[in-house]
Structure formats: structure tokens, C-alpha cells
Amino acid sequence: MNSSAPTPADDADLARARPVIAAVREGAPLIHCLTATVSMQLVADGLLAAGARPMMTETLDEAPVVTTLADALLVNLGTLSTDGMAGIPATVEVARCDSRPWVLDPTAIGIAPVRTPLAQKLLGARPAVVRGNASEVMALVGAGTGGRGADSTAAPGSAEQAAREVVRRTGGTVAVSGEVDLVQSPHAQVRLERGSVLLPRVTGTGCLLGALTAACTAVTDDSFAAALAATTWVNLAGELAESRATGPGSFRMQLLDALDEIGRCP
Amino acid sequence: MNSSAPTPADDADLARARPVIAAVREGAPLIHCLTATVSMQLVADGLLAAGARPMMTETLDEAPVVTTLADALLVNLGTLSTDGMAGIPATVEVARCDSRPWVLDPTAIGIAPVRTPLAQKLLGARPAVVRGNASEVMALVGAGTGGRGADSTAAPGSAEQAAREVVRRTGGTVAVSGEVDLVQSPHAQVRLERGSVLLPRVTGTGCLLGALTAACTAVTDDSFAAALAATTWVNLAGELAESRATGPGSFRMQLLDALDEIGRCP
Amino acid sequence: MNSSAPTPADDADLARARPVIAAVREGAPLIHCLTATVSMQLVADGLLAAGARPMMTETLDEAPVVTTLADALLVNLGTLSTDGMAGIPATVEVARCDSRPWVLDPTAIGIAPVRTPLAQKLLGARPAVVRGNASEVMALVGAGTGGRGADSTAAPGSAEQAAREVVRRTGGTVAVSGEVDLVQSPHAQVRLERGSVLLPRVTGTGCLLGALTAACTAVTDDSFAAALAATTWVNLAGELAESRATGPGSFRMQLLDALDEIGRCP
After folding, report:
1. Which of C38, C250, C252 sits opposite A56 (nearest CB)?
2. Exposure of C125 by Cβ count < 10 A (0-12 exposed, 13-18 middle, 19+ buried)?
3. Rounded to whole angstroms, how far apart are CA atoms A161 and A169?
């Protein structure tokens, strides 16, 4: 998709996201991530590349305490461990009580018997942003049958009604990722058709988007601006990385370089 | 080893593996991986690069349920966690009952007191393919003393008798990895002397071979063809990656690009 | 910092570290790592790139047994899991009884309620080397308030008194990492101002330094020489990698190539 990408100078999507991106680099927020084991390293490396700082402890014994150091919290339900099952609800409760922004990424909910009701229950703690694919956002409100593993079996457009329902319950923003991304808040909606076909060829790029969304919520009270900036950041980094990559391995490396590069002064 | 590698056009090993490789790319099978934490990301990225799709949940609460979505199952005993100890037997039982193909990778068995008897017991659930190094395959039938960690202390050739014994018990195929790879079924045997000296310099390339073997079993009922195609795929990707790499870090990146490239039309 | 780096031929830091580096490549020691999930793969890949061999099992059921195969042990408290909480004390006890060298990396201690007292208690088992940032080394002796996540909030210089106190208790060496690294033993002290600003932009480079320190303790009885060689190895690899990198993603890849390259005959 990069062939028709505008140059940075006239890229309206980038112009809109730039203040939030700059604020993340300036503030270097500490993001507590309770996230999938399989993509933990990409999430941490991606946050560092973007200028934020990761922290990943997930046990009930330590996560609720150390989250008080964080500027924002990410809860991603992928590869949910026994430690995570115990640690997540208590950690979210601390974030809720402290009015610390948090992001819910309901990875692979649908038929999974623990994470699906857990995700639905966590909506009550009003995440600033919910980030998921179409199948996941639909499963969150009991629609559809879930995807296959981490992959959506529903088109992004079909999740619009579910996204509006989640927004109604949380008062926050929902970002539905797919070929066309939908960012929906109580008051605004944007569709983005950017990014790279190589993004789903690397494990954890969706998880990284969730973590970067949390980093953006740490630097602005506007959850819609945060979700939109994070989605744009990953999409534009994906376009830049694709233009330099020869396959999924080199794309992964270039993506980290590009996250560091997007939105800097030319 | 790449200096003497034949060109793709006249590579007989590739020609033999190509139909299975093409079927993985066409079918994009969903592979449920209960696998070592340390190499989880390379396994997932390698499956994605090859055109398959990974899923990694391992708890007793969720793994047996979500495995019903999968086209094949990988069980790798490396860095076996408490979650994995509980989740693996029940998940294998679901695969067995559904006649879903599954692959056993008995990583680092020998003196390890939980995984060694577990691996031996799991043989009774008749994995389509067992993939391991010489020490591991020997330990599976009570021969030898095991390796040192994930490394074999036995030559691949010395495992031939053990491989035949495993085949006798499972009715499936055994792939013994090493400088010379041995693929053994009830009716056939192939030795392959391909690959790269850099493959054992990157963590998890053996685990990735096990996962890719599972992906191949998802697209053919012939477990021997599946094991041979996966072994060839990784070996040829290793040769191509070595020809482009300047060390183990760049080799790792090039390996993922090469998995995506091997066997495509020129 | 690489612009002013001396060439390998006249690099006195490298000359001092070279015998230990060569001994690791020659001996290929097996290093048992009980370490943070988030950086497990970089730690393993870094050990392999350096010529050592990793092993990562952490459960109470298996870790104390398999550690008897290892040449040295690393205990890193980052992202401490329930399995790690149970497995670490028993595994350290085996290392202590066997006089096997071990390294303690007290990642992110401070306010974390389990790992902080655990780290302090483990000092009694006399690690050959303690490797941490300034905040972590201070928290180990009850000074300071800890860092923020894995980041130090104290300058390396401020940890000198704490480092001396740890040395007094263990009789071993302490390596305090930062812009200026301090390596302190009962009888010697060195400050190093080498490395790259990109090292803290990649997750787990500190953990890798701890693991490489363990590899060095496996090939020399001199814990000070081991800690100094490992610190130098990572710093010089960082300088070389920075000179070839275009961002944090390519730096990570180049770092692994450079670990394999540093100190080889020109």
C-alpha cells in the first residue's frame, strides 16, 4: 500500500497524529503491560522504539503494587496464563481506583472459556480504549462466534454496531483493526485505510498497537485522539517498513526502526 | 553449506517438498502450539512467514477448548511450565479423540523429571510425527542418558534404532534432526544433509521445525511427506539465509524472509 | 559513542577482556537462566551468538535437577512468575551446594513486594556477581526507593557505597550498569564509559549482560575478570552495532552479529 502513500510533508493522517506522537517521545510514559507471552518482546521493543517504557509483571503478588508506578496500563488477554488470570482483575481495579488510563485488548475471545467472560466483565472498569479485530469486538458484546485464534473471521465493517455498543458501555473509544481501521468514540468516528499487508505476517503487531494506544492515553486525556494517533503511528510505520523490507523477517526489524522515525522533524 | 547448494530449478529435495509447501500456503492452517516460552515468538513468526497461522494458549482451562479450532497441534516440552504440565495431556486427548494430527517435540528430555515420563506417556496418543535431536529420540525409548539442555550429545546416526522403535509404537513418522537429518516412517527412510551451521546458533530453530512439521501434517495425511517437507523447508531456508547473513542476528531475520520465499515460483 | 571508539587493534578494554571472551567461545558453557519472560529470547540468542549455550527451565519440579547439568546459573528477577518464585530458591541452593558459580540480576526490585525481599535473601547464597542498575543495587541493601520498572532513577555513581556493601556481604563482584559502568570487587574497581545509547532502547540488553556475565564466570574463577569481560563485550558489541544500525530494530539484529564478532582475530 505504500506505493500511493503521501510523503510525510503532505500526510494529513500524520499531521493529525503528530502532537500525540511527540508527547509520547517527550514524556516517555511507563506502560504496565499484562500481555500475551508470545508477543511480549515485540510489545516491549515497540514501546521502546516509540519512546515509551515497558513494564511486564503479571502476578497477583506484584502486578497490583507495581502498577502504581505506571502512567498507563495495557491488558491483553492473548495466551492468558494462570498468573494473568489472577493478576489482571486486581491490577485493573487499582488502575480504575487511581483513574489511571487503561486499554483492553480482548485477544482471541470467542469460544475461549476464561478470557471471554473476563473481557466482558472488565468492560465495567471502563477502559479508555478497547482495541481488537472485528471478531473480538463483536464477541465482547455477545455478537458473532469469535474468530479463529487471533484472526478475525468478520469484516471490520460488520463490527460497527458492536463498536458503538462498547462505546455506550465504557464511555471511551473503540479501535477496530483490519484492512480498514475503525476508531469510534461517543462523539466521533474515523475510518483509516492505511498500513501494510505485512503487519499481520508478524506476530504481535496487533498487541503492539494496543500497547502503543496505552502509551498515547498516558499523554492525552482524549481517548479518541490517543487511539487514532496510535493506529496511525503503527500504520505509517508499517508502510515505511514495507518499502524497505524483503519479507516478514526484515519487515519486523524495519517496523521497529520506523516506529522510532515516524513523525520526527524532517 | 550453501556454496554447493543446487539452484532452485534443479533442486530435487525442493521438488519433492514443493507440493506440501504449496498446500500450507494455500490452506493457511491454524496450528495450536503448546511450546517453549523462550522460542514462542520465533515459532509464531516462522509459521506466519511460512503461510500458516499460530495459536499459543496452554492452560488447562482454555487449551483443550480452543484446540478444537485448530487444524493441527504441536506439543513441545521445552521450558515446560506448570500451566503446560496441566494443559498438555488434556489438549492432546482432545486431538486424539478428534483424529486431529499432532506433533511431539520432546525438547530436553533425559534427566528432567517431569517432561521425560510425560513424553514417553504421550507416545501412546500416537503423534503423527515425533521431531527431536538424537539424544531426545533415544531418551524417548529409554536409551542413552539425554542431552545437555536442548543440545544432543549423541550423533544422529546413533538414534536410528530408537527412531525405528518410536515408529513401531506410534505408527507415524520420526524426524531426527542433526547435521544429517533422518526421517523414518514404517515404510520409508530418508537422510538429508542440508541446512546451515547457523541454524543451531539461533534459539528455537528446532522448535520452529516442529511447528512447521505440524503445519505440514495439517495439509496431507502422509506423515512421512509432511516431516520430510518441513525438514527440507527449514534446511533450504537456512541455506538461503546463510548466503545473505553476516552473523547469527542477521541470519535469524533472513531465515524468516527465506521461509516466505522458498518454493515460490521463480 | 562509537565515533571516538578506538580501533580493535589498540583497544585496551578489549585486550583485557579477550582471554575470557576466547574461553567462552572455546568452552561453550551451558548457562541455566531463570530469567524474565520478556527478554528470554534475546538472552538465549545472545548467549548463542557469544558461543555459550542457554537452558531456561524454571519450575520447582525440574529446575533444581537440570541445573546440575549447567556450568553456571543466572537468576534474573524480571517478570517474576509463580513458577519462578517457587523454582528460584531451590535452584540457587543446588548451585550453592555444588559451588557452581551464579549471577544475581535483581531486575526492578524496589517496591515490588516479592522480588525485593527475595533478592536480599539470595545475597546470602553468595552470588559470584551481582549485576544491576544503580537503583537496583541500592535497593538490594535497603538504600533508595527503587527505580521505575526496569529503569534506574539513580545515577550510577550514587550506587558506589551500596556496591561496596554488597561486595562486603557476598565476597564477590558487583557490576553497576549505566552510562558509566562500575565493576567493584573486594580488591579492585574499574569504571567503564563505553557502549551505545541504543542499548537501553532494546528490551533485555541488561538481562543479556547478566547472562553473559554468568557465561564468563563459568570459564574463570576470577569473578571480577568475568564481570569486567562481560560488560566490555556487550559495550563493544553495542558500539559496533550502533555504527551499522539505522534505529533500534536494526541495532538489535546487529548487536547479535557483533557479539559473535567482537574479539575474534582480525
Report:
1. C38
2. middle
3. 13
Which one of C45, C66, C68 has the shortest CB-CB distance to B202?
A: C45
SS3 of C136, please? helix
Name which of B30, B58, B261 is nearest A149 (Cβ-Cβ).
Answer: B30
Q: Which residues pair with A102 in a beta bridge?
A: A73
Q: Which amino acid is residue A186, in one-letter code?
A: P
Q: How far apart are CA B158 and CA B161, in angstroms?
A: 7
Residues in chain C: 266
**Gap from C165 CA to chain A (nearest CA, Å):** 26
Alpha helical stretches, state H, A98-204: 115-122, 134-140, 160-170
Identify residues of A whose CB sits under 8 angstroms from chain B CBs. Answer: 36-42, 78-82, 85, 108, 111-115, 148-151, 200-204, 246-250, 252-253
User: A66, C39: Cβ pair inside 8 Å?
Assistant: no
pLDDT tens string, chain C, 266 residues long: the values are 444 555 666 799 999 999 999 999 999 999 999 999 999 999 999 999 999 999 999 999 999 999 999 999 999 999 999 999 999 999 999 999 999 999 999 999 999 999 999 999 999 999 999 999 999 999 999 987 788 877 888 876 789 999 999 999 999 999 999 999 999 999 999 999 999 999 999 999 999 999 999 999 999 999 999 999 999 999 999 999 999 999 999 999 999 999 999 999 76
The answer to whether the CB atoms of C148 and A53 lie below 8 A apart is yes
